[in-house]
Amino acid sequence: MQTDLDDAEDDDLLERMLRGDEAALLVLYRRRQGGVYRFALRMSGSEAAAEDVTQEVFLTLMREGGRYDRSRGSVATYLYGIARNHVLRWLDRNRSDVPLAQESSNACPVPGPLIASDDPLGAVTRREVVEAVRQAVLALPPRYREVIVLCELEEMDYQAAADVLGCALGTVRSRLHRARALLTDKLRSSGAITGWAGKPDAARCAT
Amino acid sequence: MISEREEEALRSALRALASATHEAQAPGSVENVLLRAYRRERLRSRGSVWARSLAWKIAAAIALVAAAVSLSRIRPEMPPRVSRERPESVSPAEFLPLPVAQSAMPLESGQVLRMRLPRSALTAFGLPVDGQYAAPVQADVLFGEDGVARAIRFVSSDTRRRQQQ
């Protein structure tokens, strides 16, 4: 039974969940919570907010999952859409509290210039680069931040991102283009991306 | 304007950030909260279904009782239900009382039904049986309001002929 559910499509799981199948809820939750949580975390910069949003997304799914329309996208994009609404509401409420530092214990202050090319690429430097980029993403206006989070960090295709954002494919492309330009400006001004070109592996290893 | 070098640097930086948070998951407490909420919601919806079903049953029962009461009120005005074969007039003298009738409620009104009975029923009432015929005999049975059979009258072929005329 559990194996059947593990192999089931999200749509089937949702249908079963709405009919009262608790196991289907668990499989769907465990399959999709990570993406929803990371989206909320990367958008808000707050673990507490990401936790609240994840909880709210699935509570909303329990209450209003019957409204899901597969012709408008997958269950995953439906969940991201709900998460987006909750995150935007959270950002609106906390507009004055612009997140500047990560809440987690591995937080580190915004670094100074990061010139990594001749650097021995110590763990500290890598963390600093990641933190600099994270801060730059969080400093973007929400409409640009969300396309960066969905397309660059979650590696969602443009059409799925358009489904989540409820906009046209062209809008996603143009916002992404603008978002990259803004991000580059921010990182250029801090010197954080200088010398990173051609060292993707080092960046991927960052923890 | 973004140079190719900067663009590549940006991609690398974003990959680094994605990788750094790739394993992030909601804490287990969220799953527990959701499961509790789901069970609560299911109980609530089951309760409301049960309540709706009970309400319908009560409404149906009330409607039945109301119909029965109104039927019992109009009953005296209704024409007596008669079968097509029922004789137009019944002479009480021709009916033989049945033993159960003595302990039953006094008869105020009743209904006569014509039935086919085995010929041996005649002997039970001390009537002569014509052994030549194995066919069943016809009888008019008088039922009281309480549904108890009170009396019986065997219908001879003469009686039938008389009724047909």
Total helix count of chain A? 10
How confident is the prediction overall: mean pLDDT of chain A? 82
Helix content of chain A: 55-70%
CATH homologous superfamily title of the largest domain in chain A: Winged helix-like DNA-binding domain superfamily/Winged helix DNA-binding domain
Q: For the CA atoms, what is the radius of gyration of chain B? A: 41 Å
Summarize model confidence as the mean pLDDT of chain B.
73
Largest sheet of chain A: none
The percent range for strand residues of chain A is under 5%
Percent range of helical residues of chain B:
40-55%
- End-to-end gap of chain B: 118 Å
Number of helices of chain B: 4
CATH class of the largest domain in chain A: Mainly Alpha
CATH architecture of the largest domain in chain A: Orthogonal Bundle
Notes on the structure:
The complex is a heterodimer of chains A (207) and B (165). By secondary structure, chain A is an all-alpha fold. Helix content of chain A is 67%, strand content 0%. In chain A, helix 3 runs antiparallel to helix 4. Chain B has 165 residues and is of the alpha+beta class. Chain B has two domains: 53 residues; 73 residues, no CATH class. A four-stranded antiparallel sheet of chain B has the order 1-4-3-2. In chain B, strand 3 and strand 4 form a beta hairpin. The radius of gyration of chain B is 41 Å and the shape is rod-shaped. At the A-B interface, helix 3, helix 4, helix 6, helix 7 and helix 9 of A face helix 1 and helix 2 of B.
Keywords:
heterodimer; A: 207 residues; mainly alpha; Rna Polymerase Sigma Factor, Chain: A; Arc Repressor Mutant, subunit A; 2 domains; 0% strand; B: 165 residues; alpha+beta; 4-stranded antiparallel sheet; 4 helices; 46% helix; 15% strand; rod-shaped
